[in-house]
Model the fold of this input.
Amino acid sequence: MSSVSDAANVGQGLQAQRTEAEETNRYTEQALLEHKRDGLWLAVRARWVALAVTAVMLPFLNPNIEVLYYECALGLFALIGWAQLKVWRVGQSRAELFLLWCDLALLTIVATVPNPFRVGDMPTAMQFRFDTFYYFYIFLAAGTLSYSWRTVVAIGTWTTGLWLAGATLIYFFGDTAAGLTEAVSRAVGGDDHMVEILNPNAVQFDQRVQEVVIFLLVAGTLALGVRRYTELLNRQASAERERSNLARYFSPNVVAELSKADEPLKSVRTQDVAVLFVDIVGFTSFAETRSPEDVIKTLREFHGRMEAEVFRHNGTLDKYLGDGLMATFGTPFTTDNDASNAVACAKAMVEAVDLWNQQRTRAGEPPIRASFGVHYGEVTLGDIGSNRLEFSVIGNTVNVASRLESLTRKLDCSLIVSDDVLERAADEHKSADPLPGFSRKPKQRIRGLEQPITIWAYGQAG
Done:
């Protein structure tokens, strides 16, 4: 094979054989994308439902004009949720983090800044008596639906900082009513602890610290759960990658069976299978007069058509061989139609090449001649390699199939099958003529076999 053909083979191999990490990252990214999109939509819908319920509930709890302040705040929360839908993406996003911070900052303002619509004076510290801190848990819960575990931790730390900052500002700058503190002191007889609990002017830092400590513990627990879920998602993505890799070699029905079994390819075993070899005749000369891009394009078109027929006939794509390929029928599991499937696949490949050549002729391109060989017999199959494993089929049956394919040039035909394939196909179909369209040829001596064998030819060389 020429250096150009070798280069084409290497180029295609490099494209097909990505590293395991790259493949895992690709599937993980896709899984995270779907998780983030679905989770964010769920979180925003949950937000809007919660805001709607709260908006309806507030007038019943506080049927005064001051409720308008909170209704406006609810509208801002809904607007922030809409904005999050517009800027989201997988990975770190400063816009998303800023909107999340706006959520927490707005809630802190609502919970600590006096309502401008309130009628009458009230110590600012009384804001803490309404248990508004509980609303932070809504955002924490929503964060677990759409964000990474690091963002859940960020919600906990930002909430802690904002809440304690609000309490500190109220302590130094909030409105107070000195007479209320004195009245409480007289009522409880000077008990300092009771005064601290009942005093409307007291910020009660011990309570504020307790609130954020509990919040941090909950946030940390949820973050751990989100992280474990992400790891599970990565494992599922890895499993999907492995399933996709199987789909590159096996037909869909075989992939379904393999995905149900535990390490079905690990054991080395022998069994009877049909082996099919395909090759482009004269590809070296063809490649010498074409650009590398044209060579690769032609190979991709050829391999794509051949691969489709392998899978359509329940075969296994064993490997690409530069300008050819090797396929097996009966791996990893034997069936009742392995020889018949192999022959039907080879005939379909011949027809696919003929149709492709018609298209190439209309496009002003030279036709491509392909040769095919099929043999049936015992092979050894299993994983080969130490670090990077590859499922492979080896044995004299493989060698004979390859030499039958080469024999097509001598006999000026497209496809040659061995008598062993014919006999097996006859047993499978219970028919004396399971291979219509084939003509019997004189016995041929095949290297690797002790005795000459009868072969059958199909189609004329193009």
Summary: The first helix runs from residue 3 to 16.
